[in-house]
Amino acid sequence: MKRILSTLTVIIILIACSKEETCVYSPECEQFGENSTQSGLTVVTYNADISSDFVGGIYDTRNNASAPVGTDWAPSLISAGYVKNPADWTLKNLGRVFGIATDDNSNIYLASSGIYGQNGYNPLYKNATPGRIFKASSPTYAISTLVDLPGITYPTGSTGSLNGIGNIAYDKVNKQIFATNLDNGKIYRISMAGAILDTYDPWTIDTPTPDITTQDEQIWGIGVNYEKGKVKLYFARITTPTTTASNRNLYSITLNTDGSLPPSAVPTLEIPNLPGAMNTITDIEFSGDTKKVILAERGDPHNAMSYSYNKIGTAWVSNTQYFVGGFTGKNSAGGVDFSYKSDEKGGVKDCDDFIWNSGNYLEAKGVTTGRVYGLQGIKYTGNTLAGASSTDLFIDYNPPIYNFAPKGDIGDVDVIDANACFCISKK
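Above: the chain sequence. Below: its structure as tokens.
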């Protein structure tokens, strides 16, 4: 009788997965849901100077099992018609955008940003609506305005600044979006209909003045993780001097049971002494199994790091630094996300197998010029500075998407989640 019951249990588990994906189960977590047809598409943002030019695009990176390593994968993508620029993703319609989030219905959200003037390679730009978050609705990805964060302004007479939205993140459990406001240092909780539900200020209350808040109050990248049945919101704080290890830390707060922000919560120190030297950590992303986190800096195009940690017990333990590009191996453009390794049909084979990192001065052995400005695909377990040009994946924005992509113009990256890979931790 016991053998019959065990067999029935196995059958029930197997039919919970689609035919084109491999599911990994654990008694400590619950599978989030089924994949959408868009799971695995990769969304990118970048700078533009002409109103009709695109400021973002979507790559079909779902079938990556046979993707060529050490060369530009983009020609094979574009020849198959897999690169997509939604018609209204132009500078005229969106302004300059950096942060990206995606929801369970494969809708895409893009956040206004002044970050492209950060490192001196571009002038300081003004966005007409520096606090705007756009929604690009699946499957056409036509844009509409989701919400305008209040109070994001520029000094009188200014030609622009870094001011805007640091980044955005989606909460799968509570179906809501979080955004960081660089003008006042607050985190905003936003409904899927675009209503501002509440806010949280983790540090000192900012004195309202035009332009970006002080370094100690700035929150850029933001991430959502699910731990022991609770939803936790993560963000980094880099205080002056920014190159001192003790001034570079990752914090979290735990949301209330209804998903709301706890207004008086004291941030919990999760990872002290983060590596790096830049004053902005612009992206924080968690794996589907909730046990891995990757962080990306942005700033000096040849001194910005990307690295990861693993959750072991209750502690986050350093995993590896990723060598993004050549020269220093520290050429991160500030965007990073997990991706799955596909099977031969493009379905999920190995969840969170590798990461996409946006970057400058990427070295690909098979590219004639040797240089790529765009994306580097790196095994989560890590790469080496000497071997990356031969072992990693590359997608160059110059071409196919945008014909002018030097240092400072590369933005964020986000992969539409394979929900079957997500495991909501219960204990």
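The helical segments are 2-14, 74-79, 91-94, 388-391.
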